[in-house]
Amino acid sequence: MEATAKRLELASMLASLFVDAKDEVEKLVFLVQGKLAPDYEGIETGMADKLLVKALSGISNVREDQILKDMAKTGDLGTVAFGIASGIKQRALEERMHTIADVFDSLKAISKISGEGSISKKLGLYTELIIGSTPSEAKYITRIITGRLRLGVSDATIISSLIAAFGWDGDPEAIEYAYNCYPDMARLARLMRSHDWHSIAATSPAPMVPVKVMLAERLTSLSEILVKLGKKAAFEYKYDGLRTQIHYDGSNVKIFSRGSEETTGNFPDIIRAFKSTFNLKSCILDGESVPYNPETGELYPFQMVSKRRGRKYDLEGKSEEIPIVVFLFDILYLDGRSTMNLPYEERRKLLESLFSENENFKLATRIVSSDLQEIQAFFEKSIADGCEGIVAKSVSDETPYRAGARGWQWIKFKRDYQRQMGDSLDLVVLGAFAGHGRRKGTYGALLMGVYNDERDTFETICKLGTGFNDEILFSLPKRFEALKTESCPNNVNSIMTPEVWFYPDTVLEVVGAEITISPVHTCAYSVIEEKSGLSLRFPRFTGIFRTDKKGSECSKTSEIISMYNNQAKK
Ligand code: ATP
């Protein structure tokens, strides 16, 4: 799998593997992504490289500093483990063959060890695993533990491989949609293997399992938005905060981020206020949380609390200092029932009936209008009130909550659109070029990319060398060290060859002047012009690392194509 850059070939390999795996397929869907559970469960083996080096040294009698040197050559401890397992002579290779369940269960056991003596217990289990492994097994088991398996297997690849493996004649989107409502790949694999299409179709959200968030399209004029949504629409403030999905199961409250990661620990004040605000049995609510000044009610942009947004956000202990208010704008589940299929207007009314606004929970400010002047004034007021703009929402009857989908039911209109190019882009870092002169010792420029979701590959769009302050600039090599790969990852399509390749993971916010045709970039290659792609001209880093976005959640090729076409219209 690692060696193929052909997505179809990868999917077909996976499909036959899934068939062969029989009921172990539930474990396999996690292992091929180097995981042990859905992301939202946050299960990790908790073994740092240092500990693995110690274990490998114990197994082989090679000194730890030598192992570290070997590892530095390739950046991959898995390759070192391969060499060490090749040298183990006690048992014949054929006796050292693990089953999927063996590996999965051992890794899960390692992840569960905690408390006193946990380090040596983890070390013992890993040592046992490696001694009983073939060299290849040792390599990949070690990579899974270090979190660097990197086979380029996305959720979308797994879903299409499951479809190919177990047969499904219907619309593949139906399977994807079931997964977006309840993103547990083991459950999906189990249902698909037993051809339980009924349960798949009936999938509905459940409290404590994050639903993939619904996303908005963008347009750069209010009149276009009105035409698109049928002359009348709802307009809500677009708060500049963090997406916040709140789950309550009757006893506990959990909070999930835009990327479905649990961030409950970051919101102690919201958790405390939840039970005194809401009197219900269970629910899933969707909103945006924003820091604010309780004296004046003024909203602060999230960057003010920390330069970093999202994933590794740490507000713990800071909640007294900087209060947070959640602006709720949707409801997905209430008292044992999914509300996702109700029209937006009904969901909003339901939400309004559930609570009285207080300093921790408010409703997103909105109007329903068909009057351009009124909408323009509302937009300006949103900016004056500290928001990024507005989100227009369709008020037609056909407006279910579309989990995981970016569609025309929601359209964002931001203050940034008045700048030359309009919206900023979220680009993923694919590689780096060495720095010279003043930039010696760090990178001169980064190779940036977008995600082509139809092909499940990353495509290059520009080289980025502007907008970095010295502190960030000189920290880049260290920041990207763990993402280095020896060669171009199998899910990256590039004409340029940077000095260093990175696994596509880190997303940066970038602004630029315009989208232009370029023969050296692969974004939308040969789509607009034969043997050329699209490129971002004069790119500049805004200073914001989008840590709330995973690599594949960066801007999409299709968005760049529509930005290019929109530019051409102007
Ligand atoms: P996207 O989330 O669309 O990929 P992004 O993360 O760059 O892009 P924006 O383009 O700024 O975010 O806009 C979408 C986000 O706006 C939503 O994901 C949500 O977090 C936020 N948001 C704020 N207010 C609202 C609202 N009233 N309705 C929907 N989303 C809102």
Entry keywords:
570 residues; binds adenosine-5'-triphosphate; D-amino Acid Aminotransferase, Chain A, domain 1; OB fold (Dihydrolipoamide Acetyltransferase, E2P); 34% helix; 3 domains; alpha+beta; 6-stranded mixed β-sheet; DNA ligase i, domain 1
Provide a descriptive summary of the structure in words.
By secondary structure, this protein is α+β, with helices and mostly antiparallel strands. It has 3 domains: 35-146, DNA ligase i, domain 1 (Orthogonal Bundle); 217-414, D-amino Acid Aminotransferase, Chain A, domain 1; 425-569, OB fold (Dihydrolipoamide Acetyltransferase, E2P). Helix content is 34%, strand content 21%. It is built from 18 helices and 21 strands. It has helices at residues 7-20, 25-31, 49-60, 64-74, 77-86, 100-112, 118-131, 135-146, 155-166, 172-181, 185-193, 197-201, 222-228, 268-277, 344-354, 372-384, 470-480, 557-569; strands spanning 215-218, 233-238, 242-248, 253-256, 283-291, 324-334, 337-338, 361-363, 366-369, 389-394, 406-414, 425-434, 443-452, 457-464, 484-485, 492-493, 500-502, 507-511, 514-518, 533-537, 540-545. Strands 12, 13, 14, 15, 16, 17, 18 and 21 form an 8-stranded mixed beta sheet that branches. Strands 3, 4, 5, 6, 7 and 8 form a 6-stranded mixed beta sheet that branches. Strands 1-11-10-2-9 form a 5-stranded mixed beta sheet, covered by helices on one side. A hairpin with a 2-residue loop joins strand 6 (324-334) and strand 7. Helix 5 (77-86) runs antiparallel to helix 8 (135-146) and helix 6 packs antiparallel against helix 7 (118-131). It is globular, with a radius of gyration of 25 Å. Residues 307-314 and 316-320 have low confidence and may be disordered. Bound molecules: adenosine-5'-triphosphate. The site of adenosine-5'-triphosphate has 15 residues, from strand 1 and strand 2.
